[in-house]
Write a structure and sequence with these properties.
This protein is mainly beta. Helix content is 2%, strand content 42%. Strands 1-5-4-3-6-11-12 form a seven-stranded mixed β-barrel. Strands 7-8-14-15 form a four-stranded antiparallel sheet, with no helix packed on it. A three-stranded mixed sheet has the order 9-16-13, with no helix packed on it. A hairpin with a 2-residue loop joins strand 7 and strand 8.
Length: 182
């Protein structure tokens, strides 16, 4: 399979004043997963000239036909009958650079496009920002839900990537770890 290039950026995101005021750029080492007619969870890596930019070029094997892509890359992700199945971690680590550069532990983002079209990534999972106005050192915060928040989750590509189901072992509690003072 020959090499191909995919161009990606971000859809407009509504994440609140703090995050909206911070430009989003792609980080060094960023990788996306790509599914198409001939690409089955193929890893695409960011070109070094795209690091720090809002629009980036990713290089991997040539992908033909309609493309479904996600970020960050996960080797165990699968796509079958329009359902993207991917594992998410129940421990999310606070990283101040998350506000500007997409790095590991970034909430899952997805994009769809035809061959040659730019991918515009959007969040399919919530982003929780906690602002504590006190001189406290927060170690962790647990968040619970009536629906699965972590584990092996299934997203419906035909229904705006709604999480349609979860596989056995999915968790309804996630832990937000913070190593910095908030």
């Amino acid at each position: 399979m020959s090499s191909g290039t995919i161009v990606a950026d971000f859809e407009s995101l509504t994440l609140g004043e703090l995050v909206e005021a911070t430009p989003r750029t792609w980080a060094k080492g960023a990788t996306i997963g790509v599914f198409s007619e001939d690409a089955k969870n193929t890893l695409y890596a960011i070109e070094s000239s795209s690091v720090g930019k809002a629009e980036a070029q990713f290089v991997g094997a040539t992908a033909n036909g309609d493309i479904v892509a996600y970020y960050p890359y996960n080797a165990q992700a699968s796509l079958s009958e329009g359902k993207l199945t991917i594992s998410t971690d129940s421990k999310q680590t606070y990283n101040p650079s998350l506000l500007s550069q997409f790095v590991e532990n970034t909430p899952l983002m997805v994009a769809k496009a035809a061959t040659g079209e730019k991918l515009s990534f959007e969040y399919v999972m919530g982003v929780l920002a906690v602002n504590v106005k006190a001189n406290l050192k927060i170690r962790h915060i647990e968040v619970s839900s009536s629906k699965p928040l972590a584990g092996r989750l299934v997203f419906d590509t035909a229904n705006d990537y709604l999480c349609s189901e979860a596989e056995s072992g999915a968790k309804q509690i996630i832990t937000l770890d913070a190593s910095a003072e908030l």
